[in-house]
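User: Please fill in residues for this 94-position structure.
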């Protein structure tokens, strides 16, 4: 009594419709919102160069090796990195 379920082949229109439904689903929106929230955490914990350059300079004096690595990953410029600019137009609407 085991019947195999046949999955229909998707043409180009069907593939585009599937991709659009996945992108506009609530699950995708919540995951993207969670990722933006996680990406903003370093901006709250690490001093930002645009808001407090003196504290960033002090960070470089106190621990230069760690500061150099943090600077490589743009942790002192979290809100100047390109992925945060993608969210700025939507945050202006709220």
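Assistant: Residues filled in for all 94 positions:
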């Amino acid at each position: 009594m085991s019947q195999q379920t046949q999955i229909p082949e998707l043409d180009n229109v069907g593939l585009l419709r599937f991709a659009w439904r996945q992108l506009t689903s609530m699950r995708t929106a919540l995951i993207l919102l969670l990722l933006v929230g996680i990406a903003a955490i370093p901006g709250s914990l690490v001093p930002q160069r645009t808001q407090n350059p003196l504290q960033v300079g002090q960070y470089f004096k106190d621990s230069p090796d760690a500061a150099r690595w943090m600077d490589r990953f743009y942790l002192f410029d979290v809100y100047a990195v390109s992925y945060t600019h993608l969210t700025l137009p939507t945050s202006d609407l709220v």
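For context: The two ends are 55 Å apart (CA to CA).
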